[in-house]
Amino acid sequence: MNFENKTAVITGGSRGIGLAIAKKLAEGGANIAVLYVGDESEGKAAKAELEQYGTKVEQYFCDVSDFEKSKAVCEQVIEEFGKVDILINNAGITRDKLVLNMDEKDFDAVIGVNLKGTFNMIKHFYKHFMKNRGGRIVSTSSIVGLIGNAGQANYSASKAGIIGLTKSVARELAGRNVTVNAVAPGYIGTDMTNVLPDKVKETMKAQIPAKRIGTPEDVANVVAFLCSDEAAYVTGEVIRVDGGLAI
Ligand code: NAP
């Protein structure tokens, strides 16, 4: 897929699914702006990896849940890259507990990053995409946003919220040639899932019809398609990338 002369902003693009998406888009020729909140050395390693594709790569410290700070970063990205064509809302956190033990902070933190962070980023680039009469927005939901999961009420609610947000913004921006879609990964091998006990991992794997855990690249391939010119007539869609787990 060809992304030459396109600029992509990827939240949480220094590792896991976000890094795989950044690599796939850079491989197609996109300039990349990565937003991160974590370890600076990890961020530097990701930048070096992305620069191998020969396009412009910059990193910005940015907590997507902070409306004003993320707005300033998005303005800086537009200024430094000239324009933005693709927004990938990938940043996400978990605070897994049964509601019995879940406190308000656990709920607010997950909604703040996953759902409000996605809103914040869409809001900051909304006018830019409208003015450019074109753009791609892809957000990372989850199959638990479709089917729920015990112990993930906060996370599932945030991911279901992303689907409603995606469909609404898709309707708002379709006439401006801006597509807005979501992917709903199943069980993907990243830092987020590596922390699960081995017994839980084996049980989950056994439930996947494809009989394997997904890779970040499995998700990146679908995201890249949704960002491509070929996907111009796909909007408001949610694509499961789950090896059949939520069929
Ligand atoms: P991960 O390795 O834990 O990566 C999460 C990313 O989110 C990191 O890059 C992190 O940035 C970023 N992030 C966290 N809080 C942030 C904040 N406040 N502002 C900006 N960035 C923030 O997890 P992953 O598995 O790659 O997950 C990527 C996305 O896929 C998430 O939205 C997750 O919910 C979703 N997902 C994952 C799975 C799965 O099985 N792995 C399944 C369904 C959906 P730093 O690197 O700077 O810390």
The rounded distance between the terminal residues' Cα atoms is 28 Å
The main sheet comes to:
7 strands, parallel
CATH topology: Rossmann fold
Order of strands, widest sheet: 3-2-1-4-5-6-7
* CATH-level-2 architecture: 3-Layer(aba) Sandwich
Our count of domains comes out at 1
Helix content: 40-55%
> Which consecutive residue ranges, at least 5 long each, have pLDDT under 50?
none
Global outline? globular
Kindly name the structural category.
Answer: alpha/beta
Question: What does the model show?
Answer:
The chain is α/β, with parallel strands linked by helices and 247 residues long. 48% of the residues lie in helices and 15% in strands. The protein has a 7-stranded parallel beta sheet, with helices on both faces. Helix 1 packs parallel to helix 2 and helix 4 (104-132) packs parallel to helix 6. The model has no long low-confidence stretch (mean pLDDT 97). It binds NADP nicotinamide-adenine-dinucleotide phosphate. The site of NADP nicotinamide-adenine-dinucleotide phosphate (NAP) has 30 residues, from helix 1, strand 2, helix 4 and helix 7.
Distinctive features:
247 residues, alpha/beta, Rossmann fold, seven-stranded parallel beta sheet, 7 strands, binds NADP nicotinamide-adenine-dinucleotide phosphate
